[in-house]
Specification:
CATH topology: Protein Binding, DinI Protein, Chain A
CATH superfamily: Skp domain
Mean pLDDT: 87
CATH architecture: 2-Layer Sandwich
Strand order of the largest sheet: 2-1-3
Distance between the termini: 36 Å
Length: about 170
């Protein structure tokens, strides 16, 4: 979807821009994002959270496995009411594990968004500033939309944006 939209924009705006002698630049926002020291801190926070969820999941799984082993160890003389109760416990434990996995994945996604959004916003603001200051009409982000050809009239503004974001 993103690629189709980008191709549509390129197909409609690029011919118009070329006829008006537009100033076009390229930027690699992913390169800039990866160079940000805050990215490593955000990744460390996310890894810590992920490890906590993984440890809790492992504990839940071990408890389930223990209950299952106990169920398997029941002999044929065990009353059906006890067997049914153990089956219900196993099903409940399995449901709890699945719900935990869903909540953990959702929380990790929320945390990732809250930690990276300020960084991507900073990169976008720097791109806007460089574009405005440089008098560019269009800046294509090559990390999102690959550019098959870039002639001599395009500029790579990645170094200027990176300097602005990193405060260099």
């Amino acid at each position: 979807m993103k690629k189709t939209f980008s191709l549509f924009i390129a197909a409609t705006l690029l011919p118009l821009a070329m006829t008006a002698q537009a100033r076009i630049a390229l930027v690699n926002s992913q390169d800039i994002f990866n160079a940000m020291p805050e990215k490593a801190a955000a990744e460390a926070q996310l890894q810590k959270l992920s490890d906590e969820y993984r440890a809790e999941h492992l504990q839940m799984q071990e408890e389930f496995d223990k209950k299952y082993a106990e169920f398997q160890a029941l002999d044929d003389t065990t009353p059906s009411a006890i067997r049914e109760r153990r089956i219900q416990e196993l099903q409940q434990s399995d449901d709890e594990i699945r719900q935990f996995e869903e909540r953990a994945a959702a929380d990790l996604a929320r945390q990732r968004e809250s930690l990276t959004k300020p960084l991507t916003d900073r990169v976008q603001q720097a791109i806007n500033d460089v574009g405005r200051e440089g008098g560019y009409d269009l800046i294509f982000d090559v990390s999102v939309t690959p550019v098959a050809y870039s002639g001599g009239t395009t500029s790579d503004v990645t170094p200027q944006v990176k300097a602005r974001v990193l405060g260099q």
